[in-house]
Amino acid sequence: MTELIINNKNKKEETQKDEKTLRKESLKKLLSDKTYLKIPKVEDIVKGKIISVSKNEIRLDIEGLTTGVIRGWEVYDESNEFSNLKVGDTVEATVLELENENGEMELSFRYAGHKRAWEKLAELQEKGEITSAQIVEANKGGLMAKIGQIIGFLPVSQLSPEHYPRISDGDKEKILQKLKKLVGKTLEVKIIDTQEQEEKLIVSEKAVWEEKQKGVITSLKPGDIVEGKISAITNFGAFIKFDHNKHSLEGLVHISEIAWQRIDHPKDIIKIGDKVRAKIISIEGSKIFLSVKQLIEDPWKKVKEKYKVGQAVQGKILKINPFGFFVELDKDIHGLAHISELSDKLVKDPNEIAKMGDVLRFKIVSIEPEDHRLGLSLRTLKEEKGGEFTKPEKGSQEK
């Protein structure tokens, strides 16, 4: 009987031992078999259910494996995805430590949120979607724009025509003052570059403007006439803002398309706010190019009715270049007195002969209406008179 009891006890111990060994082997197999359970590593993103929430600490049940905790600064989230959490919510977090001093897994929303925020930005870029950006700072190169919690850069060149700081003299301080007026505003932008590793984010307001303008200008074509106001003036031309199909559009009139006569700067004959009519001469994508002068009769078509080769005329010196004088004969017709036509002696500097604003008498030596050219000569007129040329006083009206 005693022997039977001992045998049963031994069998029971052996059974328990076998079961313990089996559990260990099963657990070992479970841990080693990735199809059953994936043991996370530092920097991995894990999913868990919130079991408690306090001001500076959140605890998660990590898929029944362990408890995770997010503490202090690591609760901060750049994507704003974890701003209103409650018990029972399922969230993702980044592993900082597999086991902290309390035996819990140390987690971070900050890293996960940072990554998620950049993933969203990259997705917006890929899809070409429009998003809102808050302007938080201005510098001479552009604006610092905030999307969510990520700070990006909006270069001056990527501003829409409405906000582009058109300063005629290009003064950087004046440009900066214009840009500062945009701080605090929210602009619609498109993301044109994201580089998470370098934390580089570049956005464009111009891209949004171009997209919106494209849909409107499809009904416009070269040759159409538009009416609008001068919205900005630069050294290379002027911008005209006009309405079309209940949309506000803007086109550029290059300096060469403002008037038939030669001008040094658009501001010499137009000013901001002037009402003008213009002809569309080309459309390139979302860019509209205009001409004001093509709606005005070309005065050079009748130049030969007014002036003749060999005629002596009076003209005002508008500009002096190393190669000669630009001379105004009337408000429409300007001519050139080449340096070789200023004197029968070698002239090294045209300023030795006359100054800007001087009114002199010239002889017309050539007229080329097609090329809008008229050649003038001081030398020939002097030779015909047989005497030395005497330079008049500035602004005099020598006849």
What does this structure look like?
The strands form four sheets. A five-stranded mixed barrel has the order 1-2-3-5-4. The protein has a five-stranded antiparallel beta sheet with strand order 8-7-6-9-10. The chain has six helices and 20 strands. A hairpin with a 2-residue loop joins strand 6 and strand 7. The protein has 399 residues and is α+β, with helices and mostly antiparallel strands. The protein has four domains: 71 residues, OB fold (Dihydrolipoamide Acetyltransferase, E2P); 78 residues, Nucleic acid-binding proteins (OB fold (Dihydrolipoamide Acetyltransferase, E2P), Beta Barrel); 78 residues, OB fold (Dihydrolipoamide Acetyltransferase, E2P) (Beta Barrel), CATH 2.40.50.140; 87 residues, OB fold (Dihydrolipoamide Acetyltransferase, E2P).
Weakly predicted, low-confidence segments? 387-399
DSSP strand content? 35-45%
Task: Return the structural class.
Answer: alpha+beta
Which of globular, elongated, flat, extended, rod-shaped describes the shape? elongated
Based on the coordinates given, report the CATH architecture of the largest domain.
Answer: Beta Barrel
Q: For the CA atoms, what is the radius of gyration?
A: 40 Å
In the CATH hierarchy, what is the class of the largest domain?
Mainly Beta
How many structural domains does the protein architecture include? Answer: 4
Question: What is the H level of CATH, i.e. the homologous superfamily of the largest domain?
Answer: Nucleic acid-binding proteins
Largest β-sheet summary:
5 strands, mixed, barrel
The number of helical elements comes to: 6
Distance between the termini: 152 Å
Strand order of the largest sheet: 1-2-3-5-4
Element order, helices and strands?
HEEEEEHEEEHEEHEEEEEHEEEEEH
Count of strand segments = 20
